[in-house]
TrEMBL record:
Protein name per its UniProtKB record: Methyltransferase
One Pfam family cited in the UniProt record for this chain: TylF
Phylogenetic lineage: Bacteria, Pseudomonadati, Pseudomonadota, Gammaproteobacteria, Alteromonadales
InterPro entries on file: SAM-dependent_MTases_sf, TylF_MeTrfase
Length: 236
């Protein structure tokens, strides 16, 4: 055993302290901190590749990740210089999940109240956005996404963030995005391992079905938090 290791074993209180902090911290905080971290990485990675297009978030809730994405975009000018113009789009019912298919029921999603308020979220985002262009679209995806991306002025997607948890909502979001996706688009899948890891259910099932149907090749870039994954479109 090296001297350092044998010294560390004598300081069990340090291990206990680290363990106590790790056990005490709320998993939702760990998830959100790691989500913020990967949003920063994804903005950076798309900027240094000069990927053109917009940021599309499906499942905005109170706007935390949406605001963070705008902040990162604004601040990274310091590291990456001027980047291509992009607009931020957020889609949500702002009234929670609505009616879910019976096989989409999930013990956690039905417990949490995902009702929010678009006026409050708008106000929160406006304070952060300043000159950054953004648009919130209110409505269930089955209604708000049927007119297609061009109806909102969206041509290409740079970053797609799927944070609406269920198979049907994710499938509707992917279908909406299909013509906007290009090589280099980053796709963030929150809750990628829900429904006991079933690859055919939830966000994972919708993603698998979508890339197979459209013959889109993707590469895993990293995992984060309590079961999120990030992919980049490598060929299509
Ligand atoms: C986990 S929350 C999003 C959290 C947010 N991205 C953040 O990190 O701050 C999930 C959101 O998806 C929305 N949602 C779920 N299914 C939807 C659907 N079919 N149509 C519209 N919004 C939906 C809910 O209203 C809820 O606000």
């Amino acid at each position: 055993m090296s001297d350092t290791v044998s010294l560390l074993t004598k300081f069990n209180f340090l291990q206990n302290f680290a363990s106590l902090i790790s056990a005490w911290i709320n998993p939702a905080i760990i998830h959100n901190l790691e989500k913020y971290h990967i949003l920063k990485k994804v903005h950076y990675l798309t900027a240094i590749e000069n990927i053109e297009g917009d940021y599309l978030e499906f499942g905005v809730f109170t706007g935390s990740s949406f605001c963070h994405s705008i902040r990162v975009h604004q601040m990274q000018k310091k590291y990456c210089g001027e980047h291509t113009a992009m607009k931020f789009y957020g889609f949500d019912s702002f009234s929670g999940f609505g009616s879910m298919e019976s096989d989409e029921n999930h013990p956690f999603y039905s417990q949490v109240d995902f009702n929010s308020n678009i006026e409050y979220v708008e106000k929160r985002i406006r304070r952060v956005a300043k000159n950054t262009e953004y648009k919130l679209v209110e409505g269930y995806f089955q209604d708000s996404l049927t007119s297609g991306p061009k109806s909102y002025g969206i041509d290409k997607s740079k970053i797609i963030f799927i944070d609406s948890d269920t198979f049907s909502s994710a499938a509707q979001a992917f279908e909406f995005c299909s013509t906007t996706i290009q090589q280099g688009t980053y796709i963030i899948l929150d809750d990628h391992f829900s429904y006991c890891g079933d690859i055919n259910r939830g966000v994972a099932g919708a993603f698998k079905e979508f890339i197979e149907k459209r013959e889109i090749e993707v590469r895993l870039v990293f995992h984060y938090g309590m079961g999120g994954s990030v992919y980049v479109v490598s060929n299509m």
